Amino acid sequence: MAAAPSLPRSTRQVLLTALPTGLPTREDFGVVETPLPAPGPDQVLVRNRAFLVFASLCSLIGGGDDMPLPALKPGDALFGPAVGEVLAAPAGSALRPGDLVRHMYGWREHALVPSDACTPLGDALPDPAAHLAQGSAAYGALTRLTGVRPGDTVFVTSAAGGVGSLAGQIARLLGAGRVIGSTGSPAKAQLLVSELGYDAVVLRGAGSLAAQLAAAAPDGIDVLLDNVAGEQLAAAIGAARQGARFALIGTLSGQLAEDRPGGAPVEVDAFQIILRGITLRGYAGSDHPDVAEEWTARFGEWLRSGAIRFPHTAVAGLDNAPQALQDVIAGKHVGTVVVEP
Question: Could you name the CATH architecture of 2-132+311-340?
Fold first, then answer.
């Protein structure tokens, strides 16, 4: 074992302490100190520098067996994408103390990670936190499912979130002629247009979404990148041009609902899907394993050239992580939110 001296013997982590009756609040979590065993022969000890706070975590809290990741029960430690520094690595490992890696053991100060679950960061991105950006799903959906043709009108729902704040810029870089987003905040709408590649924004809660979308895209939309589902998906179907291509990558309208976490039931006009030849496909990163490396390379090039911005908020301190999740649920930030423990 190639190890740094004086390895920590304990660490702090965020636990789910109670199942919420609706959406989780900070009172449903606790920050506790726990013993940290010595690394095993196939484990890497990592000091986390930052981890991602993501709204879809709500679906895993008390979720069923149909979730893509393990459901969280009271007493479980939260988890999710993180970047950190290797403190100790097994003998013979390609990793060395001081290396930066990405893994899925966030929401704690230190993590014991299986060797095969650590991905070295390399130098493709100029900022380690950029490895927690959520643009891979947007890039994969736009390049693998819908394509973006020169002059296309693209509609992105939840445009100010971690995915959407990059998706509009990605669509523009891929050749879109007009990019429209949705959000619930006039201030966010202004930022989307002034800085993040959007031409127009429809506002949730400011009248009919269908009417707003028709005004923003009078000739219809060619591509939908949907993070929300629900009524926004229904509005997009009504605005679709012939042969429109839809990619569904999230269901925030259900995941952030008080009474129906996870799914997002909505009545859609199936006749219009048929009549307009709309293709509607769900995107899962696991179905496209080649996307992550391609996205990282292009993201790095775009960041260094100034072609793309990475809007994100860094929250300091593990004790503030439960509140950070509540703020993400409430939509208080633009872009990606990370905690630096």
Answer: Alpha-Beta Complex (3.90)
- Asked if 252 and 263 touch (Cβ cutoff 8 Å), the reply is no
How does DSSP assign 203-224, residue by residue?
A: ETTSS-HHHHHHHH-TT-EEEE
260, amino acid identity: R
Tens of pLDDT, residue by residue over 187-227, are 999 999 999 999 999 999 899 999 999 999 999 999 999 99
Q: Helix, strand, coil: what percent of the chain each, to 5?
A: 30, 30, 40
What residue ranges of the chain are covered by domains with CATH 3.90.180.10?
Answer: 2-132+311-340
For 103, residues 6+ apart whose C-beta sits below 8 A from its C-beta are 46, 81, 82, 84, 111, 113, 117, 118, 119
The whole model's pTM is what?
0.92
Mean pLDDT calculated for residue range 116-124: 95
Dist. CA 159–CA 245, nearest whole Å:
18
| Cβ pair 150, 127 in contact under 8 A | no
On the CB side of 326, CA atoms within 13 Å amount to 13
The rounded percent of the chain whose pLDDT value lies above 90 is 84
- CATH 3.40.50.720 in the chain is located at 135-286
Q: Beta-carbon neighbour count of residue 216 at 10 Å?
A: 20
Encoded tokens for 84: 């950190």
The answer to whether residues 7 and 85 touch, using CB atoms and an 8 Å cutoff, is no
Half-sphere exposure for 48 (CA within 13 Å, toward CB): 29
Please give the Cα distance from 168 to 158 (Å, whole number).
11
What is 135-286's CATH topology?
Rossmann fold (3.40.50)
